[in-house]
Amino acid sequence: MTLLDEPSLVEELDAQLLFKEAHQRRRRLRVVRSILVVAVVAVVVMLGFELHVIPGPGSRSHPLDSQPPSASGLRSRATLVYAYKDLRVIDADTGTSRSLPLPAPQGGSSDLSMVRIGGSLLLNRGNTAWLYGPGLNDPPVNLGPSSRVIPGPTANEAWIWSDPCGTTVGCSNDGNGLQQGELRLVDTSGNQVGSPISLPADAAWFPTGDVVNAGLVLAVASIGPDAEEIWNPITNHVVRILPEAYVLASSGDLVAWTTGKACLPHCTVNFTDVQTGIEQALHLPSGVTGTDEGAFSPNGSTFALPVGIGGWPGNHPGGVALMDLRTQAVRLLPGTEQALGPRFGPQVAFWSSRGWLFVAVVGGTHVLSWRPGDQRATLLPKVRLPPISLNPPQFQTAYPTLIAM
Predict the structure, then answer these.
(1) Average confidence (pLDDT) over 182-201
(2) β-pairing, 254-258 with 246-251?
(3) Buried b vs exposed e over 122-154: b needs ≥16 C-beta within 10 Å?
(4) 303 pLDDT exceeds 60?
């Protein structure tokens, strides 16, 4: 039998201890690294969520006079039409524009409202409806008295609401059978479709300008506070009553509404299918206030709502909330945060027929754009709206209006 001498045995034991200790150190190091990685990821996720939902004092909201990030090279192929002191026709991609004189002096409260009718444009100006043909190259056609122009039952039709007493002091509708006036349906050539239709014989009924497949949204104060309902002018039938509702927008069979015009923090937007009565409610992030007008995407799947971040817009930054009606996801659209002020009006959000969302601030000169699938809204780099002051004497009876073709 061979025996190890004593020094060799000690050296072997020392080597084994050193190997064991090094192995344990490596294990401890791996555990510490794993814990650090998990902690960093968690912190990043939490910070990202907080910044995404409610920008705080260090948010990325930008003042209106600053330059937001510019858009990519993708083309929207949209034409923007801006109405105020003239009619400005703007190519959203190139920024080239031309001005057309307004066809009449200013009129009532819905002055400058516009709707698409096929490839044409219907403008309400001076209590008269004016039809501009495709391209807006020829002088407009006078379609007669108008208190408001309203989208029709098809994309190639539009309603013209005229109320003889709407703009006449001391006028009374009693006894003339019109009550709140009448509706005329016109096509893309301006031809009247069918006979004029009188509104229901109740002095409280009037069209809001929103429509669904089943008919028009009417505000009916006699039913209750902020009550609205869907009325089919062809059948003279009330399709559905929306008690205590303030309608924000409509599309297809859907109506988006809140309980009251001022949707304060913990705001809920309700979506009602007027045919089935099925409802769903989506909540804005905590601290976000809803405003009084939103817009559905052309396919009806996304709802865009201008909001105040941290409080009512003006005193707080504004932004746009996107609501996906298929996934029920609600998020603030990055890039739309803007520091509003007393010189400016509300934010407006509107869609082109090709599904691009545009965002502008009344009184501002910049226009933002967003396309589904993009992470954030970006500035249209070549588009500038004419600067205006919302203080008298420049301010008219109606805000400037914008529409995308």
Answers:
(1) 94
(2) antiparallel
(3) bbbbbbbbbbbbeebeeebbebebbbbbbbbbe
(4) yes
Query: In 3D, which of 322, 288, 320 has the Cα closest to residue 302?
Result: 322
Conformational region of residue 302, where left means phi above 0, alpha means psi within -120 to 50, and beta covers everything else? beta
Q: pLDDT (tens digit, 9 = 90+) per residue, 330-354?
A: 999 999 998 887 777 889 999 999 9
Say what the pTM is. 0.80
Per-residue tokens: 124: 């309400």
Quote the strand ranges of 140-180, DSSP E. Answer: 141-145, 148-151, 157-162
Q: What token pair was written down for 2?
A: 């061979």
**Which residues have CB under 8 Å from 260's CB, separation 6+?**
226, 244, 246
Q: How long, in residues, is the chain?
A: 405
Residue 284: phi and psi, rounded to 5, are -70, 155
Q: Which residues fall within 8 angstroms of residue 390, CB to CB, at 6 or more apart? A: 343, 344, 345, 362, 363, 399
- The CA angle 268-319-393, to the nearest 5 degrees, is 110
For residue 12, give both structure tokens: 């072997």
* Cβ contact 221:208 at 8 Å: no
Q: Which CATH architecture has domain 62-404?
A: 7 Propeller (2.130)
Q: What are phi and psi of 108, to 5 degrees?
A: -80, -160
The residues, any chain, with a CB within 8 Å of residue 98's CB and separated by 6 or more, are 88, 89
| Cβ atoms of residues 219 and 206 within 8 Å | yes
Q: Evaluate if residue 121 carries a pLDDT over 80.
A: yes
The distance of Cα 74 from the centroid of its chain, to the nearest Å, equals 21
Phi, psi angles (nearest 5°) of residue 227: -75, 140
Place of tokens 């979506």: 271
> Which residue shows structure tokens 């996801």?
329
Edge-to-edge strand ranges of the sheet holding 128-132: 114-117, 120-124, 128-132, 141-145
